[in-house]
Amino acid sequence: MRQTPTAIALAATLALTGCISFGAKPPPSLLMLTAQATMGAGQSRTAGAGEAVTIITPTTPAALATNRVPVQADDTNIAYIDKAQWVDVPAKMFQQLVSETVAAKTGRVVLDARQFSFDPGVRVTGELSRFGLDARAMEAVVTYDAAKSGVNGTRVEERRFEARVPVSAIEAGPAGAALNQAANQVAAEVAAWIGG
Question: Does 37 map to a domain?
Fold first, then answer.
């Protein structure tokens, strides 16, 4: 029996569907950061000129420019936890966490970069240099080098914040919980540094 060109093309297409993958298989769940200090629903705040706080999304090294969870194996080697993935890149999640924490703990109006033109007031910028696990110490490590500038950039102050939280296993669940705790510790320290 002779096959038509259409039948041959259809058979080839069906055979290839089992071989082609459009992207990696997603992990069973995604990790996210949750602020331990939050503002209540319906709360209203106002700020006079120069009283607002603007939290800028921090810069990151290339190892953190992904939604995967890095593990520092030794001084020169980084790996990523299998099947562990954030809902967004760490810098954006951390900025949102710090903003929520500062607003809740200081009572101040907190703006992000999209609202910057209103009245930036105190600006907080910086680098999220570490946001992952240290396999040697079995710890989650969050390191944030922040710079705080006053109204109109009249005064600049820098400070390094770091939190280390023990992690029970180099796996998605324990890593996410420990990094969330460490990020909240850093955010609380940033809020105390900014003040009310």
Answer: no
Q: What predicted TM-score, i.e. pTM, was given to this entire model?
A: 0.81
Kindly give, in sequence order, each residue whose CB lies less than 8 Å from that of residue 147, ignoring residues fewer than 6 positions away. 124, 125, 126, 156, 157, 158
Query: DSSP assignment, residue 113?
Result: G
Number of domains the chain contains: 1
Q: Is residue 156 part of a domain?
A: yes
Which of 69, 94, 55, 71 minimizes the C-alpha distance to 193? Answer: 55
Average pLDDT rounded to a whole number, residues 36-42: 70
pLDDT band at 16 (very low <50, low <70, confident <90, very high): very low
Work out the pLDDT band at 21, boundaries 50, 70, 90: very low
* Domain assignment present for 95: yes
Joined tokens for residue 113 = 């970069």
For 179, the 3-state DSSP assignment is: helix
Residue type (1 letter), 181: Q
At 29 the pLDDT is 80
**Structural domain of 175:** 51-194
H and E: helices and strands count for the chain: 3, 7
Which CA distances in Å does 72 have to 126, 136, 145? Answer: 22, 8, 19
Q: In the predicted model, is pLDDT for residue 140 greater than 90?
A: yes
Report if residue 75 sits inside a domain: yes
Distance in angstroms (rounded) separating the CA atoms of residues 196 and 152:
19
